[in-house]
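Minutes, project check-in

Agenda point 3 was the complex the collaborators sent over. CS summarized: four entities, 1204 residues total, and the question is how they sit relative to each other. Sequences were read into the notes so everyone works from the same version.
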Amino acid sequence: MKTVAFIGLGNMGGPMAANLLKAGFAVKVFDLVPAAIQILVEQGATASATAIEAAENVDFVVTMLPAGKHVKSLYLGNAEQKGLLDIVSKDTLLIDSSTIDAESAKLVAHAAAEKGIEFIDAPVSGGTAGAAAGTLTFICGASDSGFKKAQAVLNAMGANIFHAGAAGAGQVAKICNNMLLAVLMAGTSEALQLGRDHGLDPKVLSDIMKVSSGGNWTLDKYNPCPHVMENVPSSNDYQGGFMVDLMVKDLGLSQEAALLSNSSTPMGALARSLYVNHARQGNGRRDFSSIFDIFVKANKE
Amino acid sequence: MKTVAFIGLGNMGGPMAANLLKAGFAVKVFDLVPAAIQILVEQGATASATAIEAAENVDFVVTMLPAGKHVKSLYLGNAEQKGLLDIVSKDTLLIDSSTIDAESAKLVAHAAAEKGIEFIDAPVSGGTAGAAAGTLTFICGASDSGFKKAQAVLNAMGANIFHAGAAGAGQVAKICNNMLLAVLMAGTSEALQLGRDHGLDPKVLSDIMKVSSGGNWTLDKYNPCPHVMENVPSSNDYQGGFMVDLMVKDLGLSQEAALLSNSSTPMGALARSLYVNHARQGNGRRDFSSIFDIFVKANKE
Amino acid sequence: MKTVAFIGLGNMGGPMAANLLKAGFAVKVFDLVPAAIQILVEQGATASATAIEAAENVDFVVTMLPAGKHVKSLYLGNAEQKGLLDIVSKDTLLIDSSTIDAESAKLVAHAAAEKGIEFIDAPVSGGTAGAAAGTLTFICGASDSGFKKAQAVLNAMGANIFHAGAAGAGQVAKICNNMLLAVLMAGTSEALQLGRDHGLDPKVLSDIMKVSSGGNWTLDKYNPCPHVMENVPSSNDYQGGFMVDLMVKDLGLSQEAALLSNSSTPMGALARSLYVNHARQGNGRRDFSSIFDIFVKANKE
Amino acid sequence: MKTVAFIGLGNMGGPMAANLLKAGFAVKVFDLVPAAIQILVEQGATASATAIEAAENVDFVVTMLPAGKHVKSLYLGNAEQKGLLDIVSKDTLLIDSSTIDAESAKLVAHAAAEKGIEFIDAPVSGGTAGAAAGTLTFICGASDSGFKKAQAVLNAMGANIFHAGAAGAGQVAKICNNMLLAVLMAGTSEALQLGRDHGLDPKVLSDIMKVSSGGNWTLDKYNPCPHVMENVPSSNDYQGGFMVDLMVKDLGLSQEAALLSNSSTPMGALARSLYVNHARQGNGRRDFSSIFDIFVKANKE
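CS then shared the predicted structure for the full assembly.
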């Protein structure tokens, strides 16, 4: 039986760790919130007092953390505190599923490589529903051997496992995809509202564009106009789903990447501005398809 | 045998009229360019000396013209010249497949209705290849009865026939779709180039995004990055396909519509600016996926 | 004593006509709202029952109307109704101070010229305060002789009289200026808020930028951040001044012009999108510097 | 006689150090390029073998370096190498005139403060001409006492000395200003070209807007349209002035700042995209007013 240390048991990490237990892994868990640990212990996990303790003598480490600074701090440590790289064995495969900037991912991967340890970036998409159902998509930055070795663990948590390239490539591919998603969502919203403003039924317009050259994921799975599709956030007052604040975070990562490479992403940059303004008006915790609202004529005045 | 008058025999209209002949219609043709008429006559059409002459005593009229002013002038006539509405019988169904502004389409439809004649807007997508193959998409603004009556003719030229709503709705749906297409193309281009700037293989990145939430028509059918897909314009130096100048025209129609309804389309407006700048640098006759080029680092200096 | 017919006595036209009276012109007035006529009559004007009646036997006609369609209808007339061009003498100088699209202005100017009458476009800036104080700016599209002849009238209402070029040029210059103004306002707002978000005092930042290369009219006269300047709308809850809805109208005219000439104005197009969204959220009647609000973090949630 | 160490003797730093010599300071200089040192020695400076050597026993240190990483490395040092903070006395005032990110500036200022040393950020504007003439603008982030103490040195190199706020505020104000400048330049360019596309004389249009609500620094000092003003880069094939690559750098700093504070700067972000695309087409070394070119119709095809 293979052993996994799982660190970071939030809305995503908790169900992911649970799926590892269901798949038969022995799982040692750690989180800063004791209650989060307790939930996993009740499902068969072993509690650890620290991340370091969890990561000792395991086959795999999986981390699910909020941002690059947490990942760097945990793996690299600092003057007062050892990092995971200081204590794991060379046989342990380190898998970070956080969505962070590619530079941080590369930095940790290189530091690991210098010690003969393999660290791969494997950010996910699919949301909390996908985490619970074990149908997440993993986009990996890894060597061929690291990618192969990670399969057993990732398959227990996800349905699609992609190999984007070497260290950091998983993060780059994830943010390229999510930047494009924001563009699709904003662009589809304004097209649907333009049609509505000219008297078209958004359901009819959606049906036409979906099978035409305007076809895209948001029309297939996540229509932003209320009551065009059922069982999506737009038909539930934009509750649930993927929060505006998280899209702002991902768009921020995309712009950080564009700055580093002196790239231009005019559509993505504009989408970020629209999403930041939307968040600043108090919509940060609504679903990201609520960007549709900025195009609709409010019934004020 | 039903009779069709076909007016406007350009790159699109010519092959469309030819498909009507193949489907067994008697076709009377007119174009300002005699050579264009001659090509159709050789395929079995009857030449007409004027548009008016062509439209007399036919079951259907199909027009394929450059812009709203041509459509209005042809159907409504003016002080010196009769319009089609002055001479066709009430049994003739008028089908305009030009891509024009919705206001002009509505104006002609209403003028026709006042005389008891039915005029429907039925703009197409699918390009010259679709016109030749008879696989065009028609997006119709029409009454239910008009839409039903048009089926026989439209099926002879296209594969998908949509009913978007009442008069003008076909034009609105078409430009909403094409505006969204421009957004998809620009957004996908910048996402692919951002990935490339960070060392990713655009083929791998395309494969990942295509089945993820960034999935859209351009990744499926028309990848803008050279040599990711074969048999698309990007792999043929952006020759063929749908010209930048035509996308500029359609984006112009979308912005005209947005002005009329006081709607905002920030992504579409930005896409128009990028396409206009691209056209002004001398790229008007290249395929519209060549917008990819503006994101690439030129090997100048 | 020279005679002027003044047609359109709204918030701008009323005070402008009053200034003509003060300057010693005999003024015949017409408006669709009887109360507006009455106010001018009390100041010494002569009431007319129709616009046609007002314009008979005068040296000058000045019109101040909402949009191009009103200007065209008044001057050109239609099947049922004569237009001003049908009744004024060749010695009458026609001055339209409405802000309308340049095409309509040119159309009327050319129709007038065919009858040997001179029509000039002379849109204004300076707002209701400038109209009352007689300090408006007029931007004229006119022949040299027409421009010269208009001086007497325009000087009675304004402080700066510019000659932008031939017929229509006044309208073009006006909308270029107002589009740029919207860009300055939005750009200055976001720069000030970025500074605030990093702890800077907006007053200090304004003082620095005002004398540096970021210097522009909004920092000099119309700071959008509350309480940086007194006596501007931003320090009065964005009441008074130039309404968002009017800026949306002018930005619409600029985009209409850009469509006609196949020009790209990415900054102006983006400013229009931001202003339309702002208007749609219920801010149409607030001052246009309230665009600052979209960048500020709301105290909701 | 007060002593200054000047580190970084490039196009800006060289003439700045020369002005300190002219003002009577004893100047110790260091640069990685020996020839740059030699030029200053010929004007009376003392050569130093290292930056550390230059900074020993001086009243002031002035640094002029390319980016935040160089500033951090020089002042903070690293495992192998001491930093300036390790060797300067508490009486030495450290002045960094580089344009860098505010976070780096704050980091060094705080590290200095912990040792009882004062470090102020004092980025400049005014270009190489201003550096030579001693008419630079300095925008300072400093305590009141530090700002006061720096006057003697800054006055020897500049004409306007601003106090933007505490540590880092100089950098923030500088990038807010330069972001706004890019917006002014792009917005003015597109407004002028829109006018030209409608037949207006850009000189006349510039004269009108300059004294109207579109008035801004670029119309006063730096018109981007060729031959409207003489003695500006646009009338000299966009040679000289402030390079596109430097504007791209400053716009990058503004976007980095916007990411840190979760601010939205839609106009600045769009300006950055336009400038990056322009640089990528091979215009990086032309003056930044050459952005005008992207709006002009090329005489290709």
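Noted in discussion: Chain A has two domains: 3-166, 172-295.
Follow-up: revisit at the next meeting once the mutant set is ready.
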